[in-house]
Design brief:
- By secondary structure, the chain is an alpha+beta fold.
- The chain folds into five domains: 4-144, no CATH class; 162-215; 230-294, no CATH class; 337-546, 3-Layer(aba) Sandwich (Rossmann fold); 552-618, Arc Repressor Mutant, subunit A (Orthogonal Bundle).
- 35% of the residues lie in helices and 21% in strands.
- The protein contains 19 helices and 31 strands.
- Strands 4, 5, 6, 7, 8, 9 and 12 form a seven-stranded antiparallel β-sheet that branches. A five-stranded antiparallel β-sheet has the order 2-1-3-10-11, with no helix packed on it. The chain has a five-stranded parallel β-sheet with strand order 22-23-27-21-29.
- β13 and β14 form a beta hairpin.
- α5 (230-240) crosses α7, α9 (351-365) packs across α15 (511-531) and α16 (538-551) crosses α17.
- The longest helix is centred in the last third of the chain and has 21 residues, at 511-531.
- It is globular, with a radius of gyration of 29 Å.
- The N and C termini lie far apart (60 Å).
């Protein structure tokens, strides 16, 4: 029986636990999908000259199924294939290249829906009878299987590199799906006639196909583990252990997820083949060129019970390769009293601060589209829960955290440890004066930064790690630009322990505690997605503001003096006098003007005593 969920525009009005078995109860409705159903969405974009629905129509004619018409195209409903050897998993994708050469969106899994009703009217459908017997849907045809490539094939014309694109696409598909010669030819013919703007023609097409087939591994020479042929052995191990190479790190599949640990990798290899120590080193070197290369930065977070956080949604799919394995069970009903009571105590029962802490957990889960804040947990005395909350976060993310100190952010080798992590925690950092902060701003914002593994070439990092620091005194940044100010949020640790619980760390790190923290993180993540930032918290805003006032003599001066309408030289003289009176170091006139401008002042010319003078004017 189908389950329908009420929609608000394109998104569900509520969670997937609330549904109806009759769409008549909703004006706007979608069908809640299952892990066995995959919906392929063809959209046209006339402004860009993209008409993927024409390709979809051809496929539909050969493989008819439930077809739901949309404003920009249509959805085709199929049964998900059960193919174990597929390296590119079936999951939710946006703008994903298919074997056919068309780009589509995929929807699948129990936390996904496909719209069938808008404004009280069912969308136009073909083969509507499949809705009555959803289990009889035909299997997804090969042409609509996902490709591991990202290139564009649609509309390629003479001089656009059609031969190269066709060769790369066919070779990749051959490796992914082990096509026979006839299927390979049929695919090439389909792309040439229906996807390219101008066909290659039969002769060029045959030459391209023959080039692809010449690269096809010979079936007469099976590969096997052989200590005397370390290159062939490396290729066999790459397939057996599903080895991937990502930004200078080698990952392999252990049980149901990927890890990067050379010692464990060599132990796994040792169970398959006995080699000399020198051969182990050879293998590790070979894996950097033989392993499946991962050059993307956008990966889902995998949980330990089959669920995945993909595009900020919880879905039940095979994630394929991802460096982010969170060893936590997703259970939407999980609740933990110890975690709840600790968070209430830590926040001194301030509701907005409690929500802000939950939002930090959500920030940790977000690997894209997050506000890019850095969090300083500040408390001048002990017994305030500062270390406890940090240990709780570390336990929650497990192997997905690292600890790069703030003063090491300009060390490209140390920063390399951020790769594949979603949290960086530096505990009890020194209250130092930081001369440099460019890398801090770049890493906090998720922009690319150069990193260098030891004894290896440099590579780039788009950090996904939320930056968390604890301190008794907050470091002072020399850079007073808005870049640093925009990133930092200071969280007070002002609770006081009245009765010590020596088991609190263990209580906050149980499996149930972590599942509850995951639920809080998902709730916090959804708040961030809705508002675009973390929850407004009065005490966080106040203390963060106080920090910048105390660490910046210009801001401190503006807190006590109104320079609206004051002539520039006079304003600067007042500022210098203020610094001398309060034992602060003043900045130069130009820097003073820049910082004043950052605080919301403009310059305006006015006439004073018959002369035109520049004055500061508050925005």
């Amino acid at each position: 029986m189908l389950r329908y969920i009420e929609l608000d525009g394109k998104v569900p009005k509520h969670d997937f636990k609330t549904f109806s078995t009759d769409h008549k109860n909703y004006d706007d409705a979608g069908v809640i999908l299952t892990k066995d159903i995959i919906v392929v969405d063809f959209d046209d974009d006339p402004d860009k000259g993209l008409y993927y629905s024409k390709i979809g129509e051809l496929i539909y004619n050969d493989y008819p199924t439930l077809k739901v018409h949309t404003r920009r195209g249509f959805h085709l409903w199929y049964k998900k294939p059960n193919v174990d050897h597929i390296k590119t998993p079936f999951r939710n994708y946006t703008d994903k290249l298919t074997v056919s050469g068309a780009k589509v969106d995929y929807k699948t899994g129990t936390n996904s829906q496909a719209t069938i009703k808008k404004g009280g009217k069912l969308r136009r459908m073909d083969n509507e009878h499949y809705l009555e017997d959803i289990n009889s849907l035909p299997e997804l045809p090969l042409l609509l299987h996902p490709s591991k490539l990202k290139h564009d094939l649609y509309g390629l014309d003479d001089g656009d590199g059609r031969n190269s694109a066709m060769y790369t696409h066919l070779l990749s598909t051959l490796e992914q799906y082990q096509l026979d010669d006839q299927t390979l030819y049929n695919l090439a013919k389909f792309i040439d006639e229906n996807v390219f703007a101008k066909p290659l023609g039969e002769k060029e097409l045959r030459n391209t196909i023959n080039s692809v087939k010449s690269k096809k591994p010979s079936q007469l020479k099976p590969k096997y583990l052989d200590p005397k042929d370390i290159i062939m052995t490396s290729e066999v191990l790459v397939e057996k252990l599903d080895i991937h190479y990502f930004r200078g790190k080698v990952f392999f599949k252990k049980e149901n997820h990927f890890i990067s640990d050379n010692n464990l990798l060599l132990r796994a290899i040792d169970e398959l083949i006995k080699l000399k120590p020198s051969q182990h080193k050879q293998l590790l070197d070979l894996f950097t060129i033989k392993a499946h290369l991962q050059d993307d930065d956008d990966f889902p977070i995998q949980f330990n019970n089959g669920y995945v956080l993909y595009d900020n949604e919880i879905v039940e799919v095979d994630p394929g390769f991802t460096p982010y394995y969170l060893n936590v069970e997703y259970d939407e009903k999980a609740y933990d009293k110890d975690v709840d009571e600790f968070l209430n105590w830590f926040t001194c029962d301030r509701k907005d601060l409690r929500l802000f802490i939950e939002d930090i957990l959500g920030h940790i889960l977000m690997t894209k589209g997050f506000p890019h804040r850095a969090f300083f947990f500040w408390g001048e005395s002990g017994d305030n829960g500062k270390s406890t909350i940090i240990k709780m976060m570390q336990s929650f993310v497990g192997d997905l955290y690292t600890s790069v100190p703030l003063d090491k952010f300009d060390d490209d080798t140390t920063v390399y440890s951020l790769l594949g992590k979603i949290l960086n925690v530096a505990d009890d950092i020194n209250a130092s004066y930081l001369e440099k902060s460019s890398n801090f701003k770049t890493i906090a914002s998720g922009d690319p930064v150069m990193i260098r593994p030891i004894y290896s070439p440099a590579t780039t990092l788009n950090s996904k790690a939320t930056l968390v620091f604890t301190c008794n005194e907050i470091p002072v940044f020399k850079d007073k630009s808005g870049g640093v100010k925009k990133r930092i949020r200071v969280i007070p640790c002002d609770a006081r322990v009245k009765k010590r619980d020596k088991d609190i760390d263990e209580k906050l790190s149980t499996e149930n505690a972590k599942s509850y923290l995951l639920n809080l993180a998902i709730i916090g993540m959804n708040r961030i997605l809705k508002s675009g930032d973390l929850t407004e918290c009065e005490v966080v805003n106040s203390i963060t503001r106080k920090y910048f006032v105390e660490s910046d003599s210009v801001i401190s001066f503006l807190e006590e003096h109104n320079i609206d309408g004051v002539i520039q030289p006079a304003a600067y003289r007042k500022y210098v006098a203020y610094c001398e009176e309060n034992g602060l170091k003043s900045v130069g006139n130009s820097e003073f003007g820049r910082r004043v401008n950052n605080e919301g002042y403009d310059r305006k010319q006015v006439r004073v005593d018959g002369k035109r003078r520049w004055t500061y004017v508050k925005n």
